[in-house]
Specification:
The protein has about 525 residues and is mainly beta. The protein is about 5% helix and about 30% strand. Among the domains are: about 1-30, no CATH class; about 445-515. It is built from three helices and 44 strands.
Length: about 525
Amino acid sequence: MRICSMLFQGMELSGRGFCGIHIWRTMALLFMLPQWDTQAQDYTYTTNDGSITITGYFGPGGAVTIPSMIDGLSVTSIGTNAFYQRYSVSSVTIPDSVTSIGAFAFYNSLNLTSVAMGNGVVDIGPEAFNSCSFITNLTLSTSLTNIESAAFIFCSRLRSIALPASLGVIGAHAFYQCSGLTSVVIPDGVGIVGDFAFAYDSYLTNIWIGKGVTNILTGAFSNCSRLSTIAVDPFNPVYSSLDGVLFNQNQTALLLCPQAETGSYVVPDGVRVVGNNAFSLCVGLTNLMLPDSVTNLGDGAFGGCSALSSINLPAGATNIGASVFQQSGVTNVVLPIGITNVGDRVFQQCVKLRHVTIPDGVRNIGLYAFYSCFSLTSVVVPATVTNLSANAFGSSGLKAVYFKGNAPNPGAGVFSGNTATVYYMPGTSGWGPTFAGRPTVLWNPRVQTTGASFGVSSNGFGFTITGSSNLVIVVEASSNLSRPGWLAVGTNTLVGGSSFFMDAGLTNFSSRYYRLRSP
């Protein structure tokens, strides 16, 4: 009894009574266990080759510290969907034992604001942090080698990233629409920057490209509207920069002009290629000068340059890609002699385009080439054209289309949505009363050189023009055929098939020559 009394008395001092013995012992036991056992109940996990992969989290959230060990085994991986849409988690600390973070691991964890990775992580899987739009603090592993596709896509509040020297690959869309980023330094160890890796990072202003980068894929820095400077390590063997513009190493190809470029830009002499989307969406660019060395204009090279009103196309620029001027502000374009194809969507939605010269030798006009060119009211199609692709002139402002040769093969909807009249030349074939759904008229104006109306009078020099009824004719004059400077001196409509022209300005010249053309 004495012994029992002493034991009971000891328990009474704890203030718990007899049942307190069990609780006290249990608490003492829990206190002595390692931390990983107390947290294990928050996770589901699998064991593989003596290591743990976390497959789910069901804890209370808040600031989560992932254990380095569970059941005496090292936690080496955070598996696919492990923290998928865990809105309760506000921050996560990943231990050094973890080497990989799986696909969608933290997908759409909307309240996650801070991520601290241990230095063991070497791979971040596809879409691992997709739509974690409140992350503001991100610490990457110093051992990281691979950021896979879309790993941080839509992390819109991420303000900065320190990419480690160990990094080798930045996957496609890795930081797509991380609109809070203002600058990026790509370390020397990176070899590949994937498709659209930093696209739509709307506050990104400057980029540094390390000396190891040898492959920048499609659209890696596209739609970065505030991007003003791209700098490249001078020891990079593939790329270089000049005045903040990205070139290949020997500067024969201009690859990307930052979108914040404004005013006029002169492409340096020696550049032969203007790359795909090189000036795309440079909305502040108003004038562009290309050197005679340019031979290739890539797809979408000037697309979306809405303020671009003036550009010269060198005679040697005979390879012109699709969508080159799509949605740009060009008003007057003379295509170079030597091209054989007006590509798909080349001028689509160029709503300010009023005049385009298509040279002899062109055989095809591509899909939607002049679609929605609302200000384009007339166009001359050379005799060499044999094919008009679908919707080539659809929904445009065309009132008149002048064909120099035989009727080409028309695709579906070539003139859909406009009121164009088709004019064709005498001696050509394949024409009927309509062409591709539009009415046709023979283009046959002639100057009548006989009769009382022809010649000099007290009012000037005059003549009668005849031809198909209601043709609209522009009369041009020049005083020197050796150096002709043709000037429009009148516009006549052949009402009922004829119209009289009078040049009252003849008295100002010793001689004058005349010619007729379409409006």
